[in-house]
Amino acid sequence: MGLAHAQEGANENVLLQEWTGPYGGVPNFDDADLSQLESAVQIGMQRQLAEIDAIANNPASPTFENTIVALEHAGEDLNRVFTYYGIWSSNMSSPEFREIQGRLSPQLSAFNSQITQNEALFNRVRAVYESEDVKALRPDQQRLVQLTYDGFARNGATLEGEAKARYAAINERLSELYNDFSNNVLADEQDYVLYISADQLSGLPENVVAAAAAAATERGHEGEYAITNTRSSMDPFLTYSDERDLREQVWRTYYNRGDNGDEHDNNAIITEILELRDERVALLGYDNYAQWRLENRMAQTPERAMDLMEAVWEASVARVHEEVAAMQEVADAEGADITIAPWDYRYYAEKVRQRDYDLNSEEVMQYLQLDNLVEAMHYVAGELFGFDFVALEPGTVPVYHPDVRVWEVRNKEDGEVIGVWYLDPFARQGKRSGAWANTFRSYDSFDGEEIILATNNSNFVKGEAGAPVLISFDDAETLFHEFGHALHFLSGRVAYPTLNGGVRDYTEFQSQLLERWLLTQPVIDNYLKHVETGEPIPADLVERIRNASTFNQGFATTEYLASAIIDLKLHTIEPEGVDPDAFERETLSALGMPEELVMRHRTPHFGHVFSGEGYSAGYYGYMWADVLTSDATEAFVEAEGGFYDKEVAARMVEFLFAPRNAIDPAEAYREFRGRDATIAPLMRDRGFPVPEGVED
To answer: Residue 575: which domain range?
Structure first.
């Protein structure tokens, strides 16, 4: 079901119109028409460039207000259009949209270059940045000036002549490549579907079977069972299916996305991306892309990021060898006559979990109903952040798909409405894989306070109509993780839109921290209830889950680190002519990567890194943030009120959530904790030995 068509004969472009309705206006998804998107983006760009020209050519001397604040106002029309663009891109993609996207990408790149390379504009920004008047501004305003200046200086504004033109041309070509990369991965996810019959379902839990049947029916294969090429479908199949040949087929299909030597192969695209990134930062005087990328991150240098990963790598690989040995024992005892291969890892890990911890993932899943978990997250948000979530009746606000549910978010103390939260939980054709959070509108107060519009997106497999949706424990943690991002949005209190941004190796910290509330006692007692009996999860099962908390950490940590290390190394080498497959294979071999598993995201489908620049040379950031997460968790554990300690929670909101990017992340963490974080809590959390010389 696509976005609804606008009313015939409408004169104005709906996508450009100011939002109307409740909550200070909401996106008009009901009338959004894909046929209007291209013209809306083009008109939005024209309007913003006119606003930019007015700022750049202002005859008055540059000031904070007439230059920096004026830039904060620019582009509101285009920002509204990009709310719809983002939905068509991530949640409701179609061949028609991808054609439009392909045409718009180079235009958008050229548009951005026109702004960052506007010499008159940059001269005004630089004049404010270098002015003595900056010292009289508030700290958040000083940070805004710094971020604005860096946004120009680090993106080609200081270049001249041929270098400036080449910089813009590189960006334009990269925008095309990022789209091609993403569309190739999406094509492989949509085209490679395994249909199996009833006699091939051995080992699969009922809820997985029901979801596979529903997925097959949706695709016109009534009576069959579809294993789709997404993590949410692949992971449970590899965990439970007794059919080893099918496990191998599903595994290969999933991990070969973008790497099939066909029209959707991404290897040549990756090579060109790496070469262009390297050439671009060389124009700015940097040795490599990673050096440029990390300069304004918490890590600051590629060497510091690599030092962290290398400190954990040896222990995680050692744990993998222990895990594989345990799995091989089980396989041998069964007379399986196999050597553990990558498509066996999840399957036999589950058997070891049952043997050593008396813990069955399917048993745990019976207590993890999606609706109950959503209520649990709302409870946690109420206790820690003072938020009330009130479900809205369908039709109260427009949505882009019937699966999307909406809540009003209120301040518990005074009932003030602070936000609206949209939840899009289920996988469907045209929706990108994974889980993510976003905003349709963030908080800022420089133009009057605004109601926040936040959204969470998942890819759970939808079962039969009316049936409760059960998810794995890992998926439940991911649900809490992404809700942590939403709470970061909803609790943000900054004056200017730019300060709603983030430092990439810090922004995952808040979301990773919220995962820790999944197994807190109030959630256990009130929300983890058996799907059939309604009884709370037994205390002994919770204890077994906790006892197994470090189980399979070798697998989880190593598959992640492999991706993060490859990402960083690819962006520090001389990339000309690099063969991504060969580089991945040879680098992992040199690192001693166990052959029983692969990178979490193999290079040809590593969307974090090659569908844009958000995580490029920055996938290490999840571990950097997890150092903070483990350390901050101990602050709650040590507190009198534990995870619901009011004083620690208040400090968390004040210093870690509300400021967003208005203060330096390292400073914010020290304000919360009273000191810098150390790696020791991270190692303890994963069951690894704390390296010698590490401060505790």
So the answer is: 267-359+552-619
